[in-house]
Structure formats: structure tokens, C-alpha cells
TrEMBL record:
Keyword line: Coiled coil, Membrane, Transmembrane, Transmembrane helix
This protein's name: Septum formation initiator family protein
Any coiled-coil regions, as ranges: 38-72
Chain segments annotated as transmembrane: 12-30
Highest taxon in the source lineage: Bacteria
Pfam families reported for this sequence: DivIC
Amino acid sequence: MEIFNSKYLKPFKNIYVIVLVVFMVWMLFFDAHSWLFHHELNTDIEELEYQKEHYRNEMAKDDKAIKELSTEEGIERTARENYYMKKPNEDIYIIEYEDSLVKQKQDE
């Protein structure tokens, strides 16, 4: 019976301490407003904030592209650079630099 008379268990003989410990465990882990639930919600909020910033950046990029394509020069530049279109009787030369080429691995 020395186990129950231990100095570490002495505070747990008081009913108020027992009730307080049970209340704290209940509020931290089992309640609808528990710490675990709030931690999960905060993680979701952070992820949604990141997605919101990403989509704002994408919208800004798209607005810039729309503004560029609203002029005749912008349409022509986009057609030439991205789709390699050309005017009749015109030659296009594509220059690739050595550092921009993807180096292929040679199997030995």
C-alpha cells in the first residue's frame, strides 16, 4: 500500500485536483472546441491562405497577358514567340544557345 501513499500521488487525493485534471483533459482532447480540432482548423486556414495568394498571383499574371493581347502588336508578338507563326514570304530562324539546351545523358 505504499504506492498510494507516494508523495507524487498525494495531490490526486484532493477531489478538486481530480476534477480539474479531468476537465483539462476533456477540454484539450474530447470537446467539440478542443485544441486538436482548432489545430486542424488552423492548418486548413493556412493552406487556404496559401492557395488564395497563389490564385491572386495567377490572376495578376492573367490580367497582364490579357492587357498584352488587347493590342495588335501584343497578339503578333505572342503568335510569333509562342506559336512560331510567320507572315507570308518570311523566314524565321530559331536560335538556341548551348546553355539553354537540355543535356542528354550518354549511357556507356
